[in-house]
Amino acid sequence: REVVHIVLNETVFHPQGGGQPSDKGTIGGIQVDKVTLDRSTGVVTHTGIKVDDSSSLPSPGDMIGLKVDACLRRKLSECHTAGHVVDAAMAKCGLCLPPTKGYHFLDGPYVEYRGTIVSSERADVLEKLSRTFTILLEENIPTKIEMMSKIEADRTCNRLAQNFDFSDHPEETVRIVTVANFPCPCGGTHVRSTGELKESRWGIKGIKCKRGVVRIKYDQL
Ligand SMILES: [Zn+2]
After folding, report:
1. Max Cα separation, the chain?
2. In angstroms, what is the span from residue 47 Cα to ligand 1's centroid?
3. Residue 140 Cα, ligand 1 centroid: separation in angstroms?
4. 3-68, CATH topology level
5. Residue (of 56, 54, 52, 106) closest to 83 by Cα position
6. Which residue intervals define the domain Threonyl/alanyl tRNA synthetase SAD in the entry (predicted)?
7. How far is the CA of 177 from the centre of ligand 1 (A)?
8. How far apart are the CA of 142 and the centre of ligand 1, in A?
9. What percent of the chain has pLDDT over 90?
10. What is the average per-residue pLDDT within 181-201?
């Protein structure tokens, strides 16, 4: 089947980025499997295949309907939001390690931090972290999304171990997302409150420490 790349003047598809996979769905007769954002140009490219080989491709200037796979979007939003809750739980447990990576894909999501937890304490930390994560879901804390100036964003986010650099941010304002009362800059998709993650049974799965990196694995339990 013919692979098609589509660029539109605007889109409802979330491109892959910030550790979150892209949406899937359809654009006209094209099945979209991957959506990428070129950060240097801001161009979003939808890549997919023609469902029906006989259908014609859209031309520049055509109006076209976009359909995002809502079920997948929901799952990805949950997975990504749960990653934020891991950050919040870490801070609440006094584990103020600088975050280095988030992997919010459905095949074994995790969040990584710089640092280590000595092996003799790992079981206790895991227990405490899991309990804290669960409490944050039970508190059903609403997600807050705000646009802030870089100064305000710096003041809001760079407490504890966080050290986000907003100096090279291309726009005047920064999108700050607060999940479980823990703010950070984010362009991802989120559920409305932490309680929604309780219903779908998200939780902490394990801790792995290797070469100065702490990996907290989480998933639907
Ligand atoms: Zn986010």
Report:
1. 63
2. 23
3. 17
4. Elongation Factor Tu (Ef-tu); domain 3 (2.40.30)
5. 106
6. 174-216
7. 6
8. 13
9. 81
10. 95
Reported as a single tens digit per residue, the pLDDT across 126-147 is: 999 999 999 999 999 999 999 9
| Spacing, Cα 80 to ligand 1 middle (Å) | 6
Check pLDDT > 80 for residue 1. no
Q: How many Å lie between the centroid of ligand 1 and the Cα of residue 122?
A: 27
Cα-to-centroid distance, 187 and ligand 1 (Å): 6
How far the first Cα of the chain sits from its last, in Å, is: 38
Distance from Cα 8 to the centre of ligand 1, integer Å: 24
Q: Which part of the chain has CATH 2.40.30.130?
A: 3-68
Numbered ranges of CATH 3.30.980.10 in the chain: 72-220
Give residue 162 CA to ligand 1 midpoint distance, Å: 15
What is 72-220's CATH number, 3.40.1190.20, 3.90.226.10, 3.30.70.3280, 3.30.980.10? 3.30.980.10
Token couple for 151: 């100064």
Dihedral sign (CA 78, 81, 82, 83): positive
